[in-house]
Structure formats: structure tokens, C-alpha cells
Amino acid sequence: MGVSSTSLAAFLFISCFICLCPELTLAQNAATGVTRHYKFDIRLHNVTRLCKTKSIITVNGKFPGPRIIAREGDRLVIKVVNHVSNNITIHWHGIRQLRTGWADGPAYITQCPIQTGQSYVYNFTIIGQTGTLWYHAHVSWIRSTLYGPILILPRLNTSYPFVKPYKEVPIIFGEWWNNDTEAVINQALQTGAGANISDAYTINGLPGPLYNCSKETFRLKVKPGKTYLLRLINAALNDELFFKIVNHTFTIVDADASYVKPFQTDTIFITPGQTTNVLFKTKSLSSNAKFLMAARPYSTAASGTFDNTTVVGVLEYNHDIKPFSNSSIKGLALPPLPAINATSYVANWTSKFRSLGNSQFPVNVPQTVQKQYFFTVGLGTDPCPKNQTCQGPNGTKFSASVNNVSFNNPTTALLQAHYSRKLNVLTSNFPAFPLNQFNYTGPPPNNTMVSHGTKVVTLPYNTTVELVMQGTSIQGAENHPLHLHGYNFYVVGQGTGNFNSATDPANFNLVDPVERNTVGVPAGGWVAIRFRADNPGVWFMHCHIEIHLSWGLKMAWAVMDGKLPNQKLLPPPLDLPKC
């Protein structure tokens, strides 16, 4: 039995935000929804973690940033004002942005950055999406502190397709860096080495008791015998994570704001960029019991070190009003989590996801395709510049590519070039298949160098697309969470080793494949997706591990206008930032 969305009783943790938050005002809009106005002031704010106080870039002085709450069908008008010296853009991760690509946010793809003292209004409508998404800065590594949740409720007078939750709680995984992340990535790009690692993982901005000099721990306070909806977001820069709560289980009901066939688990895997909604039923306990929750990374990376630590939070039943201290959880057991390199667990986890696929939430996976693409994704190398010592493999510099093309950042926004048909900026010659074939998951080829370019794939409106993404082992096999802007796609197949075009398509799921916006290309394997190109504009696709994005593991799709007025990209806003 579903919960009526006419009441926000289930949102006792967040509903007060709608009434009291100064970032938000409401205006009535048509019959389908309301217009919600937010004001985001991008400011420096001092935050202390691990006994170190640093000035970080925030939205309205909050870390993580303030919640955006809306219903399916609502229009969001978000004015972003830049008060810091850095260039700023914000991406509304997972929002389809139907015909409103100007509001998508990635720097130099859909817009030029918002410069110091300038502002830009992001204006878009939430269409056909309910669940959890998120927003984050999309220029350099600023998203390390500038991120927050987008909580999308069902339309009025409609229901969730699962049991009514007692309360709903956003849980955002992140990373804390004592050093300036801009200095971290600049150093990595200069030396060609892997980037330095973060100092801690966080849950809702708090690192927990296992880190030296940590005094901040996330506490999930619950009542016995209640069902909670946990809205999980992985906002970490560079790490995929396992998550578990001692002696408790979850029911997965949603992935990337798309409903799935419910299944139970005691351990969650989530990549950077992904969101997962889970039902969490508490036990019938009368005592003030406490249980630890924990998250730690999954990695098979050979590209330098990674943060091999564990963030801990506390689940508290019938909590009292005594001040919390780390000593109060002394002796509590940590939840057992899969091994750091548990690739088989990850493969089994991802295979469990299926779209809900009923009459109310149908599956619209393309049954036939008009365009087929095969992209290799992985790491490679660049030569070391003359008169410089580089710290990448064998004295080179780390790089990354799609079909051996490492993406060069343009100096003007690709969407603006697409709209004005400036073909000298936008070249539509991205290779549909690797130019040089090899044993992708076997020993690396002798030449590991990548090429460079700013290239896109051009698609006619409404084209049905099948894309196979093949992981490579050139610099070690690892999972790559690929995120496609402007679209959801259906994950129709995945496997280990090299994709076999003669035999593997016979096993594709064209009945109830999961619908996502971010999918992991398996370490030493492949994944196949399908989508319909029904959203005109220029759409970024990239690895959501930030160091791989910085190294060039990214490309773009240019989708042409359709013939009808409602199939065309809207004109650019008057306040669109200029380069």
C-alpha cells in the first residue's frame, strides 16, 4: 500500500525546511506543480574537522549544502551568486533537463562559469522523476565541499509504490581534505602522478570516531518498529563505497530516482554519482541500544593510492538527551564489510537491479537500435614534457580516455557552439569504435599513449542508441562509474572480460533492465546501455571518479533538434555566463 503524497508527514526530518528555509520561496504554477525559488550564495565558510579549521566553498555557508525539496512536475528557479574568487558552475545531477540544457551546469560544456561577483539563474522543470538526486559544483574539484541533496516527492495525490515510511533521512557520503583540493589536483596534473588522497570519508559531512582527532560523528536517531526511507548519495570525489549497519538489513526500492523491483540486502555498494533509496525497518527494542554503521572503499586501482579508511556513524534507539561522546560507543562492533577488492560482490550487486516495470511505471527500453557504439574506457599515458621529470608510469604522465581520445577542455561552452553552429569549436568526429583493437582486458599494448581532442558524437533527434562500454587494463583494471548528463539509460547487459558482439547480445535484458544515470563499467569487464536521444542539446558523459575526469575520461553527445517546436532546444537565457 502506497503513501499519499498529499501529506508531508513522512518528511518530519526535512519538511520544516520548506516552511522555514530562507533559500526557498514558492509560487503557484499551473495544475501540474509549483515554482520553487531558491537563492544559492556561494561563499567561503570556516569548517573544523579532524582538529583542523579551513575555509571551504559552500552554498549559503552550509556543509553539505542545503536540501532542495520538490515534487515531480515542479519548476525550480535557482539563483546562484558567486562570492568567491573561483569560477563556479552547479550541475543538478540526474535531472533530465528536457530542452533546458542551459541549466545542466558542467563548465565549458553547457555554460561558461559564473565568475566572481556574477550570478546565473538555473531554471528547469522536474519531469518524470521521483526519488533522490543531488547537486554539485562542476568545475575542477570544487565539488569536494559544494554539494547537497535533491529530494523529489511524488506528484500530489499520488503514492510511492512501497510502504509508507515513518520518516525520510538523506545520507550523503563524502570526503574531507585537510589540504586545498584545488592544490591537490593542480599538483597531480603538473607531476603526472596519481592525486594525493583525502584525510577522511564523511557521512553528512562528519568523519566519525575512527579518525585521529575527530570529534564529529553522524547519529541516526530512530524509534523501534518503524520504517525509515534512507536516501543515500555518494558525493565522494574518488571512491566507490560499501555501506552497512550492524544487525540490520535494507530493502532497495530506487536507484538514481527510478523505482526498482525491491530486494533485500545487508550491504550496499554505491559509486560516486549514484543515489539509492532504501527502506530500513528498525527492530522492536526497548533499551537505548546503539549500533555502528560504516562505509569503506571498493578499489582495484593501480593508478596510485586511495583512501583505505573507514567512516563510522551511530544508529541510536530511544536516544537520551545526554551529550554524545566517542567513548559512549566504545566496545560496539564494526559491521563486517566486503574486501576492498571484492569485484565479485560488486558484480553480483549490480545484477540484482531490475526496473519496477508495472503499468504505472513502464519500461521503455528501445527494442531495436539505429546507432551502435563501442567505447573503450580506461587509463593511459601522456609523454613527459621536455625538461620536466614526471611521476606517472615509467616517467610518463597519467591520462585517461574514451576510445583512446582524451578530452581537451574547450575555452567556450560547447552547447553555445552547437546552438550557433560554430563547427570550428564543435567537431563531430568522435570514433564510434576503437581505432586500434587489442585484448582490452589482457596484457597492455606496447604503446599506452592516448590521443587528445574536443570531439562529440552527433545524433539525430529520437535516435535509438546502444552503447557498449568496455573497461581496459592498460594501467590496471578498475571500475569506472560513467555518468550521462541529460538522460536516463537502461542497463541491458554486463559481463567480465572482453565483450563478444556475436554472443553477448543474446543475453541482454530487454524486459525490465534498471534505469539509471550513472553506471559502473566493471573492472575487467563491460556494460551495455540503451537510450533514446529525445533531448536536444550537448550532453556530457564522463567518469565520476574525479581524478579520471581530470585526466580526460570524458566525451560529449550532440543531439540535434527535432522537427516539432516541443522537440527543439530552448533559446539561451539572457543571463547565460560568458567566457
UniProtKB/TrEMBL annotation:
Give the record's GO biological process terms. lignin catabolic process
What residue stretches are annotated with the Plastocyanin-like domain?
45-155, 168-319, 436-561
The superkingdom of the source organism is: Eukaryota
Q: Write the record's keywords in alphabetical order, separated by commas.
A: Apoplast, Copper, Glycoprotein, Lignin degradation, Metal-binding, Oxidoreductase, Repeat, Secreted, Signal
Query: InterPro entries this protein is in?
Result: Cu-oxidase-like_N (IPR011707), Cu-oxidase_2nd (IPR001117), Cu-oxidase_C (IPR011706), Cu-oxidase_fam (IPR045087), Cu_oxidase_CS (IPR033138), Cu_oxidase_Cu_BS (IPR002355), Cupredoxin (IPR008972), CuRO_1_LCC (IPR034288)
> What remark does the entry make about the cofactor?
Binds 4 Cu cations per monomer.
What is its cofactor?
Answer: Cu cation
Tagged with keyword Secreted: yes
Predominant location category: secreted
- CDD domains for the chain: CuRO_1_LCC_plant, CuRO_2_LCC_plant, CuRO_3_LCC_plant
Task: Provide the protein's localization.
Answer: Secreted, Extracellular space, Apoplast
GO-annotated cellular components = apoplast
As its record notes, the protein acts as a catalyst of: 4 hydroquinone + O2 = 4 benzosemiquinone + 2 H2O
**Pfam families from the UniProt entry:** Cu-oxidase, Cu-oxidase_2, Cu-oxidase_3
Q: Which SUPFAM superfamilies match?
A: Cupredoxins
Q: Name one GO molecular function term.
A: hydroquinone:oxygen oxidoreductase activity
- Signal peptide (from-to): 1-27
**Top-level EC class as recorded in UniProt:** oxidoreductase
EC? 1.10.3.2
Q: What does this protein do?
A: Lignin degradation and detoxification of lignin-derived products.
Query: Which family is this sequence assigned to?
Result: Belongs to the multicopper oxidase family.
Q: Which NCBIfam families match?
A: laccase (TIGR03389)
Q: What is this protein called?
A: Laccase
This chain's source organism reads Artemisia annua
**Taxonomic lineage:** Eukaryota, Viridiplantae, Streptophyta, Embryophyta, Tracheophyta
